[in-house]
Every structure is written in C-alpha cells, then in structure tokens.
Amino acid sequence: MNPTEEELLLQLSQPKSRSSAFSIVVRTYQERLYWHIRKMVLSHDDANDVLQNTFMKAWNGIEGFRGDSQFSTWLYRIATNETLTFLTNKRMRSQNSVDNVEESLLQNLQADNYFSGTDIQMKLQKAILTLPEKQRLVFNMKYFDDIKYEEMETILGTSVGALKASYHYAVKKIEKYLLEEE
C-alpha cells in the first residue's frame, strides 16, 4: 500500500528514506506525467526524455519543496516547465517558425510506432496542434487530465478566469477546425 502524500513528504525529507520514497514517487506519478508531457511533445521518445528530466529536477529540488501546494501539483509544474523548455529548445534548434515546429511534431506523431489512435484521434491531435501553446496546454490539462482550474492556476501561474477563457477559445478553435476538416 502506498503512503499518503504527507507520509511520502516526511520520508522524502529524511536522507535515509529519501531514495526509496522517491521510487514510490516515480511509480505513482510516471504514467500521469508521461501522458501530460506526451500530449504536448507528441513523440514517445521525446516524452520519455522530458519525463526523465522532470524526475531529475524533482530529485534535485526535493529539499526546496515548501509545501505551498500539493506535491502532485509541484510535479506537474516541473513537468510543464520542462515540456515548455523542450519545445522552446526544439524551436531554437530548428530555427523554424512556430508553425513549422508544430508540423514537425505532427510528422513525428504520424511516424510514431507507439501512437495507436484512430483517424478521429489523429484529427483531434491535428486540431490541438493548431492552438497556441498556452491554449494547447490548458486544453490538454482540462480535457484529457480533468485538472481543476484552481490546480492549473497553481501549476501555470495564471488566473482561473484567464484559464477558463483559454479553454473556451481552445474548444471553439478545435470545433471550427474539425468542422472544416469534414
């Protein structure tokens, strides 16, 4: 049986139990964080790389966790920041416009052996890729992960009102894209 978040934080704060407690953290959160990252980078290999960086940052920063938010929220914030950094670096390396990077991500998804989605799921991913990065992030967190706006506010540092607006505009843009693709 897994320890509660409070018990886990206590174990993480003690040098003797930190390593074993962090193994529990990885087992508990790796799948959720993987899919959170994967929805933004689309590639299985890239998602695994970003996930590994996320856990390394969490491990190195565990002593700095102040408990201002839930531990899971802190991990999501790290994963989100690592994902955005990865995408920014990808843009800088390719020296392409935003559209070309999104097209590159889509090509990676279409060639990804790990993507087992239907044509409808592929169309949805194409529609999501047309969104600005912030709207895409908010849409993915709300639609796929069912994260509450208040938790997103902590993760993204954006007001609930702005997040609701971003989600609303994202949904409208996706609907429009899907209707045009029929």
TrEMBL record:
Residue ranges constituting the RNA polymerase sigma factor 70 region 4 type domain according to the UniProt record: 122-174
Domain RNA polymerase sigma-70 region: 26-91
One Pfam family this sequence matches: Sigma70_r2
GO terms under biological process: DNA-templated transcription initiation
Protein's UniProt keywords contain Transcription: yes
Record keywords: Sigma factor, Transcription, Transcription regulation
Recorded family membership: Belongs to the sigma-70 factor family. ECF subfamily.
Protein name (Swiss-Prot/TrEMBL): RNA polymerase, sigma-24 subunit, ECF subfamily
Taxonomic classification: Bacteria, Pseudomonadati, Bacteroidota, Bacteroidia, Bacteroidales
